[in-house]
Amino acid sequence: MRPLTEEETKLVFEKLSKYIGENIRLLIDRPDGAYCFRLHKERIYYVSQDIMKRAASVSRKQLVSMGTCFGKLTKTMKFHLHITALDFLAPYAKYKVWVKPGSEQSFLYGNHILKSGLGRITENAGRYQGVVVYSMSDIPLGFGVAAKSTQECRHADPTTIVVFHQADIGQYLRNEDTLV
């Protein structure tokens, strides 16, 4: 477990800012203690300072994980956000999309969201902006990237893709044998 380098921190914060904007500081400066990001085996973990100090007594080879895995750094230095970060992204999300009950299952199987399945969308969401996807009963289902802005969604055909799928809670079941 090591602290992130300057370049790694920039990659992680750029990705997180697509989804939660300036609320990144709320992840670090929390009233219940200090939290930080750490790298271990190409995975970025979000962990409290107390747990990090306790994990220092475990050797790196024997340490499987600690804290919450936020994503993975690829060999080409790109950061991919994992679904395990959803619980931390959802409360601070700038842009949200609600899907109709008939389209929830399609999204949870890994498909994009069509205009016909769109229930609501927050105002002023831009094209290619990160969005958190909710059910109509306000349960976070996953996250994606807006394929159309809010204005473009109003005039789009029902078969037009409005949100590109990134990750969803159905991945726990689809990939349970390979999820780390």
Automatic annotation (TrEMBL):
<keyword id="KW-0694">RNA-binding</keyword>
<dbReference type="InterPro" id="IPR036974">
    <property type="entry name" value="PUA_sf"/>
</dbReference>
<comment type="similarity">
    <text>Belongs to the NIP7 family.</text>
</comment>
<keyword id="KW-0690">Ribosome biogenesis</keyword>
<dbReference type="InterPro" id="IPR002478">
    <property type="entry name" value="PUA"/>
</dbReference>
<dbReference type="GO" id="GO:0042255">
    <property type="term" value="P:ribosome assembly"/>
</dbReference>
<protein>
    <recommendedName>
        <fullName>60S ribosome subunit biogenesis protein NIP7 homolog</fullName>
    </recommendedName>
</protein>
<comment type="subunit">
    <text>Interacts with pre-ribosome complex.</text>
</comment>
<dbReference type="GO" id="GO:0003723">
    <property type="term" value="F:RNA binding"/>
</dbReference>
<dbReference type="InterPro" id="IPR016686">
    <property type="entry name" value="Ribosomal_synth_fac_NIP7"/>
</dbReference>
<comment type="function">
    <text>Required for proper 34S pre-rRNA processing and 60S ribosome subunit assembly.</text>
</comment>
<dbReference type="InterPro" id="IPR005155">
    <property type="entry name" value="UPF0113_PUA"/>
</dbReference>
<keyword id="KW-0539">Nucleus</keyword>
<dbReference type="GO" id="GO:0005730">
    <property type="term" value="C:nucleolus"/>
</dbReference>
<dbReference type="InterPro" id="IPR015947">
    <property type="entry name" value="PUA-like_sf"/>
</dbReference>
<dbReference type="InterPro" id="IPR055359">
    <property type="entry name" value="Nip7_N_euk"/>
</dbReference>
<dbReference type="Pfam" id="PF17833">
    <property type="entry name" value="pre-PUA_NIP7"/>
</dbReference>
<feature type="domain" description="PUA">
    <location>
        <begin position="95"/>
        <end position="170"/>
    </location>
</feature>
<dbReference type="Pfam" id="PF03657">
    <property type="entry name" value="UPF0113"/>
</dbReference>
<dbReference type="InterPro" id="IPR040598">
    <property type="entry name" value="NIP7_N"/>
</dbReference>
